[in-house]
Structure to design on (167 residues):
């Protein structure tokens, strides 16, 4: 039931591997809920990534970000705290708090959620459509951190350093 003045939203029900698939940040990203489907409330993506995949050290200025690890293990660095996150772990990174993560198992599957939605526009701009529902082949060249930094800034994301857990 909708209330006056609010749009009516449809339920979302997607199985594993259903959704818009992208090769993003070294892994397979399957979008489960986007701005369009949630009236801007939440973005949900299921990630499948190999050992060593992760993000540059960054900070979101528009959204909070959280992760739920379903298989494998990740290591996070959030606001200076190192967090080992095996399957079943939940990690929350509030906006304006620097963070990064690395996949430390052979591969990992996890949910990445941002609130409010909108991060998916950056993810789509920084990725390519996945031709298969598999982890992409390893890159043949180092990432263009300068280009990624400029692109991220357009979406309220500040890249603070390279991928990897700061020491």
């Amino acid at each position: 039931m909708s209330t006056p003045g609010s749009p009516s939203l449809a339920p979302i029900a997607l199985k594993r591997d259903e959704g818009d698939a992208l090769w993003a940040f070294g892994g397979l990203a399957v979008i489960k809920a986007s701005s369009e489907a949630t009236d801007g409330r939440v973005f949900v993506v299921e990630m499948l990534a190999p050992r060593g995949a992760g993000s540059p050290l960054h900070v979101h200025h528009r959204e909070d970000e959280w992760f739920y690890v379903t298989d494998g293990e990740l290591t996070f660095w959030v606001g200076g705290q190192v967090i080992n996150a095996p399957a079943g772990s939940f990690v929350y990174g509030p906006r304006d708090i620097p963070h990064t993560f690395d996949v430390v198992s052979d591969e990992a599957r996890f949910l990445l959620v941002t609130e409010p939605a909108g991060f998916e526009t950056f993810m789509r701009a920084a990725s390519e459509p996945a031709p298969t529902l598999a982890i992409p082949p390893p890159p043949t060249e180092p990432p263009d951190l300068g280009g990624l930094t400029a692109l991220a800034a357009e979406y309220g994301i500040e890249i603070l350093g390279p991928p990897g857990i700061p020491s």
Q: What stands out?
A: The helical segments are 35-38, 119-125, 145-153. The CA atoms of residues 117 and 153 lie 16 Å apart. Residues 145-153 form the longest helix (9 residues).
